[in-house]
Write the structure tokens for this entry.
Amino acid sequence: MHDAPLAGLHRLVWTALMAALIAVGAMVMLPVGPVPVTLQTLFVALAGLVLGPARGAGAMLLYVLAGVMGLPVFSGGKAGFAHLLGPTGGYLFGFACMACIAGFGGLHGRDARPGLSHVALALCCCLAGLAVAYLAGAARLMQVLDIDVARAVAVGVLPFLPGDVVKVVLAVAAWRFLAARRLLPR
């Protein structure tokens, strides 16, 4: 079976849209120490669910590439390669992994209204991806700030956990809404 003539273009547009939403999520921020609260986790999870593992991670990497090339898309309107080397650089790489892992949860239930088992799988994959993002972020915090594991978790994970769980739930709800209306890219 052949894809529709514009299916490839449709997927590229969705990938660019998700990268743009991740950038918008970075702009909605509340500075609270070395790691700001943003809406990025919502859009990273949604990118994975909507686009699948490879394209979801690709959207996140496209976002990172835009920032490295000088577009002010990182939290606080920052840009440049040096941002990747700072205290939040680990989260950016972890978000690419998060989008990939979340993407596995979005592979099922795409053709109809996702059932409870599909939603549970999507939620579990998003939370597993979030755990990987936290791991990468905390590891970078330890290295840059020269702190131990307990302090990195206290500064870079625990304050964000409740809000990020809510954002993941919202991402799964948005994915379910899009899937039920057959609006997801093929």
User: Anything to note?
Assistant: The chain has one domain: 7-180. The chain has a mean pLDDT of 93. The domain at 7-180 is CATH 1.10.1760.20 (Arp2/3 complex 21 kDa subunit ARPC3).
